[in-house]
Amino acid sequence: MEMIRRRFSAYLLTAMACLLWPFATSAELVEGRDWRAASGSAQGAPEGAEIEVLEFFSYGCPHCADINPLVKRWTEDLPSDVRFERVPVTFGRAAWESLARLYFALGFADELERLDQAVFDAVTKQRVNLYTERAVLNWIAEQGVERDDFAKVYNSFAVEAALAKANTLAARFGVNAVPMFIVDERYVVLNEGAKTHAQLLENTTALIDKARQARQDQARHD
């Protein structure tokens, strides 16, 4: 009799967990707390087969510096249908424009992977002035990069074009704080319900799933 009661209790607990699970899952993301609709999104489904995730950031932002190592690990496990892109913001500040220009120049010079976190640490932890071209070139030379060659990249048309595109994207989506993640031109990830940077990325992952489902639902109705 005791064995029967134990089995029944175990069955009852399992059944209750199954009943409660859908509600717990649907309650994971709350609009207005974990996400909001993105302003400036295109009408209809976003273009392209891939789900695009944009991270708006600045080297001058301490929170961006803290989350950056987590973001790098997080992107390694993204599904094949997701494309991740970082977008430096300037907010109209000359100092932050220098940092954004530095980000793009590092990319074109194939030095971004090596020096990305070093820039964050220099600006936010060591309080190094990287807000002018001269300061940037002095620092980049200290990192073992040929100064004159980097100066050409820093002032190149390619960097100017990338910077203009970044400013256009930030204006289009009304970016007013960083770090800000936007998923598939649909959802802005909010941090009101996220207690840690890791949880913010978990919410971003969940919104990727939500965007994928939205695409499938839209395809069925087209």
Provide a quick synopsis of the model.
The chain has helices at residues 2-26, 62-76, 94-108, 112-124, 133-142, 147-154, 157-172, 197-221, and strands at 35-37, 51-57, 82-88, 180-183, 187-189.
Architecture overview:
The protein is of the alpha+beta class and 222 residues long. The chain folds into 2 domains: 1-30; 31-221, 3-Layer(aba) Sandwich (Glutaredoxin). The chain is 57% helix and 11% strand. It has 8 helices and 5 strands; from the N terminus they run H-E-E-H-E-H-H-H-H-H-E-E-H. It has helices spanning 2-26, 62-76, 94-108, 112-124, 133-142, 147-154, 157-172, 197-221, and strands at residues 35-37, 51-57, 82-88, 180-183, 187-189. Strands 1-5-4-2-3 form a 5-stranded mixed beta sheet, with helices on both faces. Strand 2, helix 2 and strand 3 form a beta-alpha-beta unit. Helix 3 runs antiparallel to helix 4 (112-124) and helix 5 packs across helix 6 (147-154). The chain is elongated and about 55 Å long. It starts with a helix and ends with a helix. Mean pLDDT is 87; it is low at 1-27.
Tell me the Rg in angstroms.
Answer: 22 Å
Distance between the termini: 59 Å
Total beta strands: 5
CATH fold type of the largest domain: Glutaredoxin
CATH class of the largest domain: Alpha Beta
Structural class: alpha+beta
What would CATH call the architecture of the largest domain?
Answer: 3-Layer(aba) Sandwich
How can the largest sheet be summarized? 5 strands, mixed
Helices, by number, come to 8
Percent range for helical residues? 55-70%
Order of helices and strands: HEEHEHHHHHEEH
Strand content: 5-15%
Mean pLDDT: 87
Low-pLDDT stretches are 1-27
Shape: elongated
When the domains are counted, the total is 2
The named CATH superfamily of the largest domain: Glutaredoxin
> How would you name the oligomeric state of the polypeptide chains in this document?
single chain
Query: Biggest sheet, strands in spatial order?
Result: 1-5-4-2-3
